[in-house]
């Protein structure tokens, strides 16, 4: 007769699960960032034709850009600046499972995109994965707070120490930088950590 408790895994099983999660995370992030590079190459060849699919603030037609903008960039320097933090933070966000990662990514994209659409100056076009970068930061730190597993707490501390300075990116500052995307991406990441947290049975 089952008491409803999850089975206890051996250290070997936990290690195998973690390694499998890490491998899946690497594959997902290489595919994601690689796809962004392919899109930017296409955009470059077509003289920026894809940039029109960004988020156009306050324009109803610009809502379509919520799901396209995170994968498009305003040139290779923009993409290069986002690629490394996206790979690192995305890897850490996905290490607990691709399913939860995809769910978290969707929440971050929607919250960040809607925030940009509502708050950015009218008719401005916003592109780039920085909302995802800030979102994965918030998700990894939030997961440590809400799930309270040892590994998640350690990852949250490491990420907070390594990337604490990006928090300043949520403040209005340099022209041409979407602080709105940063702020709402961070909010979306924390919200995703809460919504996708491990449910405890009492």
UniProtKB/TrEMBL annotation:
Keywords per UniProt? Hydrolase, Membrane, Protease, Transmembrane, Transmembrane helix
Q: Name one GO biological process term.
A: proteolysis
SUPFAM superfamilies on file: Rhomboid-like
Cross-referenced InterPro entries, in alphabetical order? Peptidase_S54_rhomboid_dom, Rhomboid-like_sf, Rhomboid_protease_S54
Q: Which cellular component terms (GO) are annotated to the entry?
A: membrane
Q: What GO MF terms are annotated? A: serine-type endopeptidase activity
Which part of the chain is the Peptidase S54 rhomboid domain? 63-198
**How does the protein associate with the membrane?**
Multi-pass membrane protein
Transmembrane ranges, per UniProt, are 18-39, 76-94, 101-120, 126-146, 153-171, 177-196
Q: Where in the cell is it found?
A: Membrane
Question: What's this protein's name?
Answer: Rhomboid family intramembrane serine protease
Which species? Acrocarpospora corrugata
